[in-house]
Amino acid sequence: MAGHTDNQIRIEAPFQLVWDITNDVPNWPNLFTEYAATEVVSQEGDTITFRLTMHPDDNGQVWSWVSERTKFLDEKRTKSHRIETGPFEFMILEWFYEEVEGGIVLRWVQDFHMKDTAPVDDEWMVNNINKNSKVQLQIIKDKIEKAYHSRRASAQRTVSLHDCPQDHRRGGTIQTLLSPRTVGSTSGFMGGATLKAGEAIAEHYHPYSEEFVFCISGELEADIDGEIVPVPAGTAILVPKDTRHRLRNVGGGEVFAVFHLGPLAPRPELGHVDTETREEAAEYAARILAERETKAA
Q1: Are 175 and 191 in contact (CB under 8 A)?
Q2: Which of 162, 215, 251, 268 is the most buried (most CB within 10 A)?
Q3: 3-state secondary structure of 189
Q4: Which of 172, 151, 177, 185 is nearest to 262 (CA)?
Q5: What CATH code would you report for 3-152?
Q6: CB–CB of 209/262 below 8 Å?
Q7: Could you tell me the pTM of the whole model?
Q8: Which residues partner with 217 through β-bridges?
Q9: What distance in Å separates the CA atoms of residue 89 and residue 185, rounded to the nearest whole number?
Q10: Angle at Cα 34 formed by Cα 112 and Cα 80, nearest 5°?
């Protein structure tokens, strides 16, 4: 028998920043809450040998061991193993960095086997690693995202659209500029939406916020609780809270619009409720445009 764990988390930050921070081994005591110290034993190329020392456990025991870690930048992964195995017959840990929409999925895969003389067995260690990995991954996510957003925001609280991650999950391209996470706002958040010809943002509503949308360029159209409302360039529209709405580009050029939502929801995940998929919104937009072309012919 052998133990195996597989844990991951999505980090909203560029690959290079995630890679640099998580591979800065000497700084791990500031990144992880479980490590008290890191001592670099040797380093050659992309391989580093180092000693990790943990904070005392509940019994006052201080665990320390030497590991070797190699980075494979082209493959976006690292591989480590314990040289001083301690209670393990072996311990191998691989980190994978997958680039996804708006960030990186950081994945930890561990394979190991406990010695017969170890105080715990593989099953106990699997449960312990799974529990602890979730905690440490969340801590790492929070620290990296904070570092990323603090770098984006200057002392004047300015954020460039070109530095913002692009979100395509609901259709079009949505980028959040000013928010509690990026600049510490407390009353709402704002961003930009870009729609290519024929693109649409899927229907949704906001239980806690009203939304202001200002079309800067292009021919934007909104469905507000089933009513079609033209929002051409230079026009703004108010979407009351709890009101279903979708946006689509009905022109031949690109639409760019600015949006603002406020007040904030109690938690970010409560602020947006989807009522259709981006594929459904795109199909609906295509059908409407096709019907209009038929009538105009």
Answers
A1: yes
A2: 215
A3: strand
A4: 185
A5: 3.30.530.20
A6: yes
A7: 0.58
A8: 256
A9: 51
A10: 35
